Amino acid sequence: MPNLDKSLVADLPIFEGMNPDDLSDIIREAQSIRYPKGSSVFQQDEEANSFFILLHGHLRVMKVTPDGQQVVVRFVAPGEIFGIAMAMGRKTYPATALAVVDSVALVWSAAAWPRLVAKHPSLAVNTIQTVGSRLQDAHTRVVEMSTEQVERRVAHALLRLAQQAGRKGEDGIKIDFPISRQDVAEMTGTTLHTVSRLLSAWEDQGLVESGRQRISIRNPHKLFMLAEAPSH
Amino acid sequence: MPNLDKSLVADLPIFEGMNPDDLSDIIREAQSIRYPKGSSVFQQDEEANSFFILLHGHLRVMKVTPDGQQVVVRFVAPGEIFGIAMAMGRKTYPATALAVVDSVALVWSAAAWPRLVAKHPSLAVNTIQTVGSRLQDAHTRVVEMSTEQVERRVAHALLRLAQQAGRKGEDGIKIDFPISRQDVAEMTGTTLHTVSRLLSAWEDQGLVESGRQRISIRNPHKLFMLAEAPSH
DNA sequence: CGACTTGTTTGATCCAACACAAACTGGCGG
DNA sequence: CCGCCAGTTTGTGTTGGATCAAACAAGTCG
């Protein structure tokens, strides 16, 4: 591993409270792999032989139902650990991870996990927190899907995207990876048609500015009010 | 702690791979507390001062939205660990836990957690798996809410309840704690009216048998088919 | 640069499920 | 044992969004 990567990785929450020697020890076992745009990092139901930390790019994690419908579970941003199915006691990946842009990840063998955890207990403690916060997110999403109607769900989804992957630009916050109406629909449990209509309406009101696989939020505050309170 | 409780607890997944001495060490720090039917074990947004293992009874865990709507997150059955918010790095409980029948839980101080984990690393490893499997469940629920319509969601919910808390009786599997139409509605993101209509219809077809806060599944196989494939 | 692919917009129609409303019932407390 | 209350059933109207259908850009590639 080049030093460059080590410095990128040192401050990640998953390595919090770990001394540099231990960190080197862990990173030494990884290799960095490049995933071209559109390629898959792992596939749903495939044997979970590796776990990962994303260095560059963005991934879309999704589940496919038996009848072929897709649901976007989340997007992975640089610095996040992912594909830790085996740490959760699973033999296979529960979802598919796809590179939405050219991406690079650190990759460990799943076999290394028990040894690393045994040697560096804080790794397990930090992993509980990582998985725990994802559990919170998932529950938040369940609550939203149960109680809110589509307009608010989509507004919430955009705000979350802006927070996780927003690049502050001239006129508002731009989501800095390609994302389609279909993607947003699969995040919120609706159809691309409905998302398209909503974005068009919001564009007219000056809340967002969007195009082909591209969304910017011009007025986060107004969008937030829309997300919290009914249409008006 | 009386020996009785120790034997109940020894085989739980959370203590897997732990020798009896270590187990005693952990259990010694807990006290067992009784929660009468209808009382709360902890409240949403309250400071997370404890974590728990349920010994007897059943709990309903639920989230309340700002506008007062409730969503049932899950039911806790005996043997399950719950209220581990602080292990996931939270200061407060993200939900409310209510005893649906008279219940008893082992209670630890949250302050004991870091010490216990440091001394017994397998505790952390097992906790990752516990939290991980809840994350899977939550994602399954998100996928269901996104892609399935109400009838199938309710069918799935009943089958899950039967699996987790089903008591095999003469004519089918009875859910062995009081559960209302409203509860099922809050688990599936619908209204008690719709749940009532579905149960009535299923009763006519001989799939279930239900009454006031009481549901039995007479024909799990047919209900399962209904859950997997559309109405027909 | 024209053909084609992939993503987007917009219109028209339809229906599952929600909202509202009212009557019913089992079981508990006084 | 009667009255009350929480939980349930069932009817009727309404609607948010899905579905179906087409035309319309914006890249991309030969």
UniProtKB/TrEMBL annotation, chains A, B:
Residues 148-221 form the HTH crp-type domain. Residues 14-134 form the Cyclic nucleotide-binding domain. PROSITE patterns: CNMP_BINDING_3 (PS50042), HTH_CRP_2 (PS51063). The keyword Transcription applies. Keywords: DNA-binding, Transcription, Transcription regulation. SMART domains: cNMP (SM00100), HTH_CRP (SM00419). PANTHER family: CRP FAMILY TRANSCRIPTIONAL REGULATORY PROTEIN, LISTERIOLYSIN REGULATORY PROTEIN. This is Crp/Fnr family transcriptional regulator.
